[in-house]
Amino acid sequence: MEDRVEATITVNGTRLTRRIEPRMHLIDFLREELGLTGSHVSCEHGVCGACTVRVDGEIRRGCLMLAVQADGKTVDTVEGLSDSGELAVLQQAFHERNALQCGYCTPGMLLTAQALIKEHPEATREEIREFMSGNLCRCTGYQAIIDAIETVLRTPRTEGVR
Amino acid sequence: MKPSAFAYARPRALEEAFALLDKHGENAKLLAGGQSLLASLNMRLAAPEILVDIGAIPGLDGIAVRGQTLVIGARTTHRAIERSEAVAKHAPLLAQAAPHIAHVAIRNAGTLGGSLAMADPAAEWPACCVALQATIVVTSKKGERRVAATDFFKDLYTTALGAGELITAVEIPCVEKGERHAFLELVRRRGDYAIVGLAARARLKGKTLSGVQLVYLGVGVTPVQAKGAMAALEGKTADDAAIRAAQDAIARDLEPNADIYTSAEAKRHLARVLVARAVAALVG
Questions:
Q1: Which of A17, B82, B134, B137 could pair covalently with B169 via S-S, beta carbons 3.0-4.6 A apart?
Q2: Structure confidence by residue, pLDDT tens digits, A29-71
């Protein structure tokens, strides 16, 4: 009944094949099997957004997806997107605006914010709040996070930076 | 929490899925987007023996216009519906409702068919499908059958789906000239399930309403058509008197259950607020 299932997943650019227990969440696979502990686990029922990762280019809840469902898909985590430099501008803005305290929500915040920057670069402050509403932070009171994202959206972009 | 152990199958064709459903019966659960199912597995509210993942079966997603009908594949995500130009043009109610569903990361995964099969009484798609008089296309190894959305939702989390059946598509009549849609909901926090929501639809000629549909979510065990309020607005000029009549009828139409946050009386009040806003939106 607990037979493992083979899945081939491209994680942060590396294609790998593993036999995975069906009940294992994608987020636990990334953290426990691959050691990618940048993405966090908190509520485990899709409310908090700490486990946000990117699957085939779109943000997903890592706790509401089985690792075996990622067979044939591309998964990107905060580690990969940091290494590629894609998050650099956003990370700098979070740093400058003090948009994190304990940092637990930050990887999820960064991935969601980056999705907003790509999909909706003209977002108003209210639209930023709406887009980010699925990511909970228990430290900052959110204003600094919204400030950081707004700063990135309002800063003229240099080709190649993002 | 982590789910209890289960087996997993990823069929590549509908026939394989039907065979698995046949073999495992009620011990099997279908997995589509998984945004409700995985949460309930994580909380151990459900413990199926096997998940049948329909994610690899071709032909279950996509949005198409066939004649005067908008056809949406069951596995189409909330986000795809939200972004679709065809949906915005032919079923604006769905385009209005989509942003109310949870959050972007969840809308990227959750599906139309999954939401309908789950039949959460506070979910958006069931109420929209009733208001749009949509048809749910249900398939089993015996073939296809079509169920009117108005007959599909039977009870709390209970639908007309029988053993061995799954939803493959939803057919929606394209919006007609003069037809207006409005979707409204009241929530404590953005992305929460609605305390009360309303899917509204009517034809407008001058300021006269006809073909009025008012379908509430969050006030009963299924989507609830407010038939008294619909009748109160039918053929009427959308003025304050008609709105008041509809609001009065709401008191008789709805028997909401209190939840842990909101009393039945508060829900009824909010339902009256929404009908006034919906009429304003329809004629606005």
A1: B137
A2: 999 999 999 999 999 999 999 999 999 999 999 999 999 999 9
A1 pLDDT band (50/70/90 cuts)?
very low
Q: Which CATH architecture has domain B179-283?
A: 2-Layer Sandwich (3.30)
- Whether A22 sits inside 8 A of B5 (CB atoms) is yes
CB B81 within 8 A of CB B87: yes
> What are the C-alpha distances in Å from B32 to residues A51, B38, B98, B136?
20, 10, 18, 16
Burial B48-57 (b: 16+ CB within 10 A, else e): bebbbbbbeb
From A152's Cα to the closest Cα of chain B, the distance in A is: 20
Q: Could you give the CA distance from residue A52 to residue A56 in angstroms, rounded to a whole number? A: 13
Per DSSP, which regions of B67-120 are E strands? 69-73
Domain B63-172 fold is: 3.30.465
Q: B35 vs A21: CB contact, 8 Å cut-off?
A: no
SS3 content of chain B, % helix, strand, coil (to 5): 40, 25, 35
ipTM metric: 0.94
Name B66's bridge partners.
B69
For A21, B208, B268, the CA distances from A28, given in Å and listed in that order, are 11, 57, 43
Question: Which residue ranges in chain B fall short of pLDDT 50?
Answer: none
CATH number of this structure's domain A5-78: 3.10.20.30
Q: Is A45 on the interface with B (CB under 8 A)?
A: yes
Query: Domain A87-154 belongs to what topology?
Result: DNA polymerase; domain 1 (1.10.150)
Among A135, A80, A147, which Cα is nearest to A109's?
A: A135
CA distance, residue B55 to nearest chain A CA (Å): 8
List chain A residues with CB under 8 Å of B99: 130
Q: What is the pLDDT of residues B27-53, one digit of tens each?
A: 999 999 999 999 999 999 999 999 999
- Dihedral of CA atoms B244, B199, B187, A53 in degrees, nearest 10, equals -170
Q: Which residue of B has its CA nearest to A70?
A: B55
Chain A residues 101-160 within an 8 A CB cutoff of chain B = 112, 115, 129-131, 133-135
Give span(s): CATH 3.30.465.10, chain B: 63-172
Chain A residues with beta carbon closer than 8 angstroms to that of B7: 1-3, 22
Residues of B in contact with A60 (CB under 8 A): 105, 108-109
